[in-house]
Specification:
The protein is an alpha+beta fold. The chain is built from 13 helices and six strands. A four-stranded antiparallel sheet has the order 2-3-5-6. A two-stranded parallel ribbon has the order 1-4.
């Protein structure tokens, strides 16, 4: 058996060298393209203003949108939960760090006992001259213990917990990005629904005026009743679309209030006046797909979880090796009186070098290591999948943005042409050249195309929001010191 001084020397040498069993972590290399497939098409867009990725919502040029996003970032309850999770993770890291340090404690007690004379011990003691059935005992001790992390099991656990803390920080940043994007998306959806509702209401007014004209002509016997009923049916069809749009608008407004951490209805008055659908700004500094690895917080979360799982493989492997601990105690004890507690004769001390080794438990340790490696393989696959999906998000958002804007431009020309066609058909009907059916068809075509144009405008703006979110826009490095150091 090794001498205790030899064991202590080995322990100190290993601690000084910082040896820790298990694989050291290295960020995995994920194959990625040098450029997004849709980047060229996005660069060719004719947008009004370039956007700063850190505060992309301001580039839409809508003060109310900017205000709502700012409120959401201050008041959203999802962000409050994320902040609380960071606090918990920080505390866990502190506990893991403290596990590497010695533990000290002070104990003390005073006791008074009364010995029965009927017990065997009492009968023996009672026959002793000067026996006092009352006894006092006093003791006070200062104790300390320290588990020597010779093979790095505790350090691997601290490494894992710190990586999880960094993941929680990145998760809070990811929540911030999601809140900003969801708030902007809801606001744009509200403006789009209001635009579509206004189009439907204008069409109702137009159809009502047409019906009034036909009814006057019918009263004079100049048109048949069939034309009156056709105009009434067309008016009812347009009116029927208004409640559907209104219901969707109510849902979006309620969702926006909840996103702002307010009861539904709180900000409705601010949104009553219909506004224009915000125009998507120019997306600049998109960077390469590889830059997503350091800019998208959700990818940082996945990568930090991988680092934590790697460290836990080392923690499991450390169970193969013995664990050493040092403990000591100094203090005093007396059974005479409290006044003698700190006298030289009452002093006592102890020192212990402990050894714990799961020598015959290697089967269970092997299973734990395999479990940790399986978890690491799972998290690695999740990380690689997250990277692929992140690039997919960007590509899809770029494609939607470019194609929706192209669709909106085509439909804008169609609205202009169909508006003139509707005016011409009405003039032809009033002159008796065209039938009412042709006027109603022109109205229906104009309404349908105008509504599609409003939807295309809305979807293109929402696609821009999705692109900014997919690119990891919405935070700067200084917003999170831990995330920035990854």
């Amino acid at each position: 058996m090794l001498h205790k001084h030899t064991l202590a020397a080995i322990a100190v040498a290993c601690l000084t060298a910082g040896c820790a069993v298990g694989p050291d972590y290295a960020r995995p290399d994920v194959p990625m393209l040098e450029r997004f497939q849709g980047q060229a098409a996005v660069d060719r867009r004719q947008a009004t203003a370039p956007a700063d990725l850190a505060e992309w919502w301001a580039a839409f040029g809508d003060p109310q949108l900017t205000r709502f996003v700012t409120l959401a970032l201050e008041q959203n309850l999802d962000m409050a939960q994320a902040s609380a999770r960071v606090t918990q993770a920080r505390a866990g890291w502190g506990a893991a760090h403290a596990a590497l340090l010695p533990i000290g404690n002070i104990t003390g007690q005073a006791a008074r006992a009364y010995q029965s004379a009927e017990t065997p011990l009492g009968q023996v003691l009672s026959s002793t001259p000067g026996f006092d059935r009352y006894g006092n005992a006093y003791d006070a001790h200062l104790g300390a213990s320290w588990e020597l992390d010779v093979f790095g099991g505790l350090r691997r656990e601290r490494e894992a917990v710190f990586a999880e803390y960094q993941a929680s920080e990145a998760g809070a940043t990811a929540t911030r990005l999601a809140v900003a994007a969801q708030t902007a998306d809801l606001y744009i959806s509200i403006r789009g629904l209001q635009t579509r509702l206004a189009i439907a209401q204008r069409q109702v007014q137009t159809q009502q005026e047409l019906l009034s004209t036909i009814q006057r002509l019918y009263g004079k016997g100049l048109v048949a009743e069939l034309q009156v009923r056709q105009a009434e049916g067309a008016l009812a069809q347009v009116r029927a679309s208004i409640p559907v749009l209104g219901a969707g608008l109510d849902v979006a407004m309620n969702a926006l209030d909840v996103m702002l951490g307010s009861p539904p209805g709180t900000h409705r008055a601010e949104l009553v006046g219909a506004g224009n659908v915000p125009v998507a700004p120019q997306i600049t500094a998109a960077g390469s797909p590889r830059e997503l690895l350091r800019r998208r917080p959700d990818l940082i979360v996945a990568e930090r979880r991988l680092a934590a799982s790697n460290a836990r493989v080392g923690g499991a492997m450390a169970e193969y090796y013995p664990k050493l601990s040092l403990s000591g105690l100094i203090g005093s004890a007396t059974s005479v009186s409290g006044g003698h507690l700190f006298s030289s004769g009452a002093g006592q001390a102890a020192g212990v070098l402990g050894l714990r080794w799961r020598l015959f438990d290697f089967g269970r340790i092997n299973a734990q290591i395999e479990q940790a490696k399986g978890r690491e393989a799972e998290v690695l696959a999740a990380y690689r999948l997250a990277v692929l999906r992140a690039t997919e998000d960007v590509e899809n958002a770029f494609s939607a943005l470019v194609n929706r804007e192209e669709q909106a431009a085509v439909l804008a020309n169609g609205v202009d042409s169909l508006g003139r066609a509707r005016d011409a058909s009405l003039a032809g009907y009033q002159k008796g050249v065209l039938s009412l059916i042709e006027v109603l068809q022109a109205d229906e075509n104009l309404l349908r195309t105008s509504d599609a144009h409003a939807q295309a405008q809305t979807e293109s703006a929402r696609a821009a929001v999705a692109a900014f979110r997919a690119l990891g826009g919405g935070w700067r490095d200084r917003d999170s010191a831990n995330v920035a150091t990854l």
